[in-house]
Amino acid sequence: MSPVCGEGKVTYLVEAKRLKKYFPVRRSLLEGVLGKRERFLRAVDDVTIGVEKGTVLALVGESGSGKTTFGKLTLRVHLPSSGSVTFNGKEVASFKDKDLESFRRSAQMVYQDPTAALNPRITIGEAIRQPLEFNRLGSVSDQKERALKIMERVGLLPAEEFYSRFPHELSGGQRQRVVIARALVLDPVYLVADEPVAMLDVSVRAQILKLILELKQELDLTMLIITHDLAIAKYFSDNVAIMYLGQIVERGSRQDTFVNPMHPYTKALISSVPVPDPERKRERLMVPGDIPSAINPPPACRFHTRCPFVFERCRVDEPALVERSPGHFVACHLYDKK
Ligand SMILES: Nc1ncnc2c1ncn2[C@@H]1O[C@H](COP(=O)(O)OP(=O)(O)OP(=O)(O)O)[C@@H](O)[C@H]1O
Ligand SMILES: [Mg+2]
Q1: For the whole model, what pTM was predicted?
Q2: I need a labelling partner for 30 at 20 to 30 A (CA). Which of 10, 43, 121, 222 fits?
Q3: Which carries the bigger pLDDT value, residue 29 or residue 98?
């Protein structure tokens, strides 16, 4: 059998294999009385991808495609319904005691909404120091010193002054800097950034993305960046995975994805990104309708209900993720069409 992620020599820090997360759907009273079977929402449905050490993987897809659920599975916020996640080759679900504590320190998340992520009654300095306290790392003054250092690094200057401010006294961009500092204060090696700039004013998005990327280089982080914005994936990732209704439809290097997109869904996403040069015309590929429900996903190819190139086989046969060129995987029957 070929290596699960296709590239034999690649070293993955985080690797998901045949990963599934099904959430039970609450039955109505009537359904219960009628003895209807329990139904499940298939948020992540058989995903096999890895995040190579020291690289950024962008996970891209529409709202509801399962991106956040996938990110949380890699952090053990959720446990899988089936399949596995490994971290440095070890099964994440099996971690206990010291191993679990160490994993929790090594793998951190930056959430989309910095306001919701911060307690309004705790000063930002204390919010950044707290993870060190919870992990019993150093004395209180060591912890404070470490918090101040990381605050300086993320641009909360002067750090001493910011330390005693409350979240409501900060701008959205500054709050996101606090969230980033808090995620990094424990020296993680793996960072999941879930739509890290989606809630921010357009004017500060580039600064925050630049900061994340600088920190990634300096601290040698491995990152999963979750976004519905192809432009972010284009400028900030090494590899890209495109997710549709719980499944990966295409994955490969950034070059594969942007220069030679193959799946009609990827093509549609890319063609919807505005081109800065007005002289350059690009053909728009429109995808009609909304993403279907993950409770009753379309059979066979999940994208067939919206695909402009649909043909008979797409309605009856589920396409496998096939390596079409080295490291470039696509799940689409079009490429087998004679
Ligand atoms: N804890 C949960 N319980 C039940 N259903 C959930 C839970 N978390 C997510 N879901 C459902 O799983 C599906 C995928 O959700 P998820 O948040 O992973 O998508 P997403 O791609 O991150 O979307 P968005 O871009 O809107 O953040 C959605 O239908 C969502 O309603
Ligand atoms: Mg999400």
Answers
A1: 0.93
A2: 43
A3: 98
